[in-house]
Amino acid sequence: MACFVVTAAFGMVTAALGKRFPRHWHVNWLNTMIFGAVVAFAAEHYINGEIVPWPPFLTAMGSPEATAAMIGEMIGVGIPMTLALVFAWVVMVVFYEKVMAVRAAAG
Q: In 7, 71, 79, 90, which residue has its Cα 20 to 30 A from 106's Cα atom?
């Protein structure tokens, strides 16, 4: 329903604060991963009719019961999805920094 909204909100925060992070953290990689996922999931939700081009835009906001289910999905799927993206980014950055350190020591 709207699990990608959590990731999109997190992406807006990291994009806005991107200059405050050290360069070697490669926050641009994280933002690329986040916004790629958001676009993919938004497209998938649009194709399945869960997003419409008129207010309230999310079909799950049509009734209080559906809105409650949507919020539950945002908590149960959106937060873990965002944490998985952050974990993958951390692994990428650590691996990249280790490889670059080995290359610098060898060269």
A: 90
**What is the reported pLDDT for 54?**
86
Which pLDDT does position 81 carry in this prediction? 96
**The three-state (H, E, C) secondary structure of the chain, written as one string:** CCHHHHHHHHHHHHHHCHHHCCHHHCHHHHHHHHHHHHHHHHHHHHHCCCECCCCCCEHHHHCHHHHHHHHHHHHHHHHHHHHHHHHHHHHHHHHHHHHHHHHHHHC
CA angle 70, 43, 40 (to 5 degrees): 95
| Amino acid, res. 35 | F
CA atoms within 13 A on the CB side of 12: 5
